[in-house]
Structure formats: C-alpha cells, structure tokens
Input
Amino acid sequence: VAAKPDCVFCKIVQGEIPSHRVFENDAVLAFMDIGPLAEGHLLVIPKAHYQTIDQMSAEHAAELGRVLPQLTGVVQQVSGATGCNLLQNNGVVAGQAVLHVHFHIIPRAAQDGLGYRWHPKSYPDGRAAELATLMSTALGRSA
Ligand code: 5GP
Ligand code: ZN
Output
C-alpha cells in the first residue's frame, strides 16, 4: 500500500513531519499524540496507508494488534495509569479526523473527566437475532 500524498500520518511514517516515536517495526509505528487527552496518550498506526480498519488486510491488522498489549502496558507503567481506553475512530461520522487508521491508547485515572456518553438502548423482539443472522451470513458462515 503506497503512502498517500497529503496524509499527515504517512508523512510522520516517512519522517517528513517530526514526531516523538516510541516503537516501530516494518509494519507499525507508535508515537505520541500531539494533542493528548492525558499524559502518555499514544497513537499506533500501520505504516501502510489505510483510511479505515475495514479496508485493512487481515495480515496488516494482525501486525497492529500484536503490539497493542505491550504498548498498553508501557503506557500504563510510564503514565502511572491503572487503565486505558483503546479507541479507534473509524470514519468521519465516528469522529475520525486523520484519515489513516490509528488506535489511540489513552491513559485513564479516577475522576479524570474523560469518558463518553454511553446510553444503552434495547432491541425490539427478534431484532438482535435478525441482525446477528444478517452479519454472520454476510461473513459467509453461520454462527
Ligand atoms: P482522530 O480524531 O482522527 O481519531 O484522532 C486524530 C489524532 O491525531 C488526534 O488525537 C490528534 O491530536 C492527532 N494528531 C493530528 N495531527 C497530528 C500530528 O501532526 N502529530 C501527532 N503526533 N498527532 C497528531
Ligand atoms: Zn496515510
């Protein structure tokens, strides 16, 4: 997957825009978020340009996923947080501002004022089963 001109994170991968790098290998780069929600807020990205996670190959997604446990541990160790939110805003409607896939690792502390509106709804009768069938069928297998 070629770098995308005008993509801020592709430029960070290529070193054209400076960043504080924490970890990198052939497939993945982790660096400090320039606008942290808390001290230690890290971004983890594939070096290949994908706009959203649903466009990623399973292999590239796996490369990203395999570094998350250790990076989360290090963020918590260094920031002193006892928990983190791992967040991936997928698509503009979901709050994605930079259109190159990234996971946020956001350290959390008690009474830090972070968090988001989480107002659970409930399904009308049969709807959850219907949606589950639609999705498992779309995946090409039955659950
Ligand atoms: P999104 O809303 O797309 O999930 O989050 C984009 C994140 O990228 C934001 O948290 C923002 O602070 C961060 N960001 C945007 N531009 C830069 C940059 O040039 N350098 C770094 N290190 N982070 C950036
Ligand atoms: Zn990019």
